[in-house]
Backbone:
């Protein structure tokens, strides 16, 4: 990436910028399984903003204190009577029967039945301890149960992991004015920790950035089929604490939606997006029930579980591998045959909005890891999360676009969701109709949206001819421009 763009980042995102040098700082985190947003938080804490140098000794001492490399050492220290402070990922469970808030810390072997959140910690952090995965600085100690027969691990203090309690969208919009669209695309790639120079075409860059659409748009449902080594798992598992990555194993309706036995919501309830990685290796228990619940949820964001209505704004993504020819294109034109049998139903697949052609993307190697000044991941993930509730872009889309009268509702909804997500990601400074460059809107937002929904339609038609592959006619109300096509 050009030095000029890095300098612009430092100038217009000064407090949110960070110098990335994986070769220099990577060894600091060896043996500690930390996502990128936590690493950036720690690096920034010990970074000299003028020189880009990290105080490695101070950072190492802090890591040794709050992120011990040895899993078993935490329980040993608690057993010996020590209070232990951790910067950790933990999972909250609410036991309605016992009227308890329990927690587990999988990375340190602390199970749900062993961890307890007392009332005074909960009351000081109202709203933080909803069910699901959390990151924070927690202080733990070992205490006897009320009956004195057993012990439990008690959370005696908690500080949420929120380096940015809120982000200013107007600040982002103002800063975006100082970058051209091509420059901004490179900024986004570098914020994802990838070197823009590792992508040989604009089409490949856009294909890669399309993975971020479920971060930024509520209830956007996506399918990506790609060869191994294109960075799928890293993007969805490391860039945001608001997503959940399911990698293999057994999946139940209770785990996804609602567990009636525990009276506990599933992972879809409390996350921005849920990604099924390596979809071919996931075993869906009670597949008919999961399929029925998914159909309803993918359509409306709601489903009924044992007479209880479940709703969420979480987007779903299916990621799987696809065999390619020597020309690096799919061997078969029937893409969805690579999905598990339970997902090869056209009525279910038609509820997905967007398709990503992962075979277009380059295989990730060390040369593609970004080095230089960019936006730190924690700020970047908060921006994506906050933009989900910004309705300005959807209203602008409604003013700009007109569908043919008999357009299928699923098609028009899908195109709007995809195009709106691109607007948020690439053009956050478009706040009024006068701000919009019509040529760029068509080139970067509308045309890709129609194209990506069109792939889903075509593949559903391959499964069931009753589903027509033709996309509805879509036009921009304000015409009179032309532009180069990406697709």
Residues:
């Amino acid at each position: 990436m050009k030095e000029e763009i890095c300098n612009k980042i430092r100038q217009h995102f000064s407090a949110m910028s960070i110098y990335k040098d994986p070769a220099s700082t990577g060894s600091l985190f060896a043996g500690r399984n930390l996502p990128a947003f936590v690493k950036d938080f720690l690096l920034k804490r010990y970074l000299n903003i003028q020189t880009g140098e990290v105080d490695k000794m101070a950072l190492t001492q802090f890591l040794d204190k709050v992120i011990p490399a040895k899993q078993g050492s935490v329980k040993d220290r608690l057993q010996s009577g020590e209070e232990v402070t951790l910067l950790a990922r933990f999972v909250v469970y609410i036991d309605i029967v016992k009227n308890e808030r329990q927690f587990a810390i999988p990375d340190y072997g602390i199970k749900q039945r062993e961890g307890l959140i007392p009332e005074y910690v909960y009351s000081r952090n109202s709203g933080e301890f909803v069910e699901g995965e959390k990151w924070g600085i927690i202080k733990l100690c070992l205490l006897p149960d009320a009956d004195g027969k057993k012990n439990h691990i008690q959370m005696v203090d908690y500080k949420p992991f929120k380096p940015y309690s809120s982000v200013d969208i107007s600040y982002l919009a103002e800063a975006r004015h100082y970058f051209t669209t091509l420059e901004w695309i490179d900024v986004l790639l570098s914020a994802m920790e990838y070197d823009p120079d590792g992508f040989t075409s604009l089409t490949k860059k856009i294909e890669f950035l399309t993975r971020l659409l479920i971060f930024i748009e509520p209830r956007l449902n996506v399918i990506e089929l790609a060869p191994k080594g294109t960075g799928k798992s890293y993007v969805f598992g490391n860039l945001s604490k608001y997503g959940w990555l399911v990698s293999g194993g057994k999946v139940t309706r209770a785990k996804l939606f609602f567990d009636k036995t525990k009276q506990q919501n599933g992972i879809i309830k409390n996350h921005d997006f849920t990604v099924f990685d390596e979809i071919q290796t996931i075993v869906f228990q009670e597949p008919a029930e999961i399929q029925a619940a998914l159909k309803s949820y993918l359509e409306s964001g709601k489903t009924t579980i044992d007479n209880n209505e479940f709703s969420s704004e979480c987007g779903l993504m299916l990621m799987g591998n696809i065999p390619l020819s020597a020309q690096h294109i799919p061997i078969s034109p029937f893409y969805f045959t690579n999905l598990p049998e339970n997902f090869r139903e056209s009525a279910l697949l038609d509820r997905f909005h967007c398709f990503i052609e992962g075979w277009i993307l380059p295989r990730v190697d060390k040369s593609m890891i970004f080095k230089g000044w960019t936006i730190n991941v924690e700020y970047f993930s908060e921006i994506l999360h906050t933009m989900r509730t910004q309705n300005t872009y959807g209203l602008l889309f409604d003013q700009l676009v007109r569908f043919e009268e008999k357009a299928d509702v699923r098609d028009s909804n899908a195109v709007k969701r995809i195009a709106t997500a691109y607007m948020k990601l690439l053009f956050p400074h478009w706040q009024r109709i006068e701000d919009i460059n019509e040529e760029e809107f068509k080139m970067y937002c509308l045309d890709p949206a129609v194209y990506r929904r069109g792939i889903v339609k075509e593949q559903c038609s391959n499964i069931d001819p009753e589903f027509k592959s033709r996309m509805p006619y879509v036009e921009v109300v304000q015409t009179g421009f032309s532009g180069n096509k990406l697709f």
Observations:
- The chain has three domains: 73-160, 192-367, 368-476.
